[in-house]
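Hi Q.,

Before the meeting this afternoon, I wanted you to have the flavin mononucleotide prediction in hand. No need to reply - just skim if you have a minute. The sequence and ligand are here:
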Amino acid sequence: MNAADLPPVAPHALRTALGRFATGVTIVSCRAADGACVGLTANSFNALSLEPPLVLWSLRRSSPNLAAFRAAPAFAVNVLAESQVELSRRFASPVADKFAEGAWAAGLSGAPLLAGCAAVFECERVSDQEAGDHVLFIGRVLGVAESPVAPLVFQAGHYRLLGDIL
Ligand SMILES: Cc1cc2nc3c(=O)[nH]c(=O)nc-3n(C[C@H](O)[C@H](O)[C@H](O)COP(=O)(O)O)c2cc1C
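Predicted structure with the ligand bound:
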């Protein structure tokens, strides 16, 4: 079978199938050149390599934050706890001052770090490449912190709570 002969996958079918893949929820943040804090809710975060320590995430190309993330030498991935669902909603909306809520402090790289997260990854940006309608960011992990709080889960377009198999 020639892959070029296959009918294209309908966007709705792709979105629905991808939604079956449960993820955590993060706020990815950076410091813009003018010093402003920049961030958005993202569930495209994933592990990439242990040695060297690399992680990835992707940002839609039409995002008003794209230039800031491409210019910033570093970014932080704040893995949200289930208690932080309102911050997830806030950072997924075009709110004027997203950072007015939450306990934020500058990390070693200058990127904003959120207190109370399940984990935080401070990263040096090593690449940003266009991939379809998104830009794929890869970061080298410079520092990590983690806490045994319940992580927020996202699946099929809804926030979920993590449960154990009994
Ligand atoms: C659970 C969840 C995950 C998301 N993941 C991403 C993502 O990985 N990349 C992305 O570009 N947008 C993602 N979004 C959408 C952005 O959070 C949303 O477009 C936000 O408004 C972007 O900030 P901006 O309006 O300041 O660009 C996600 C939204 C939600 C609710």
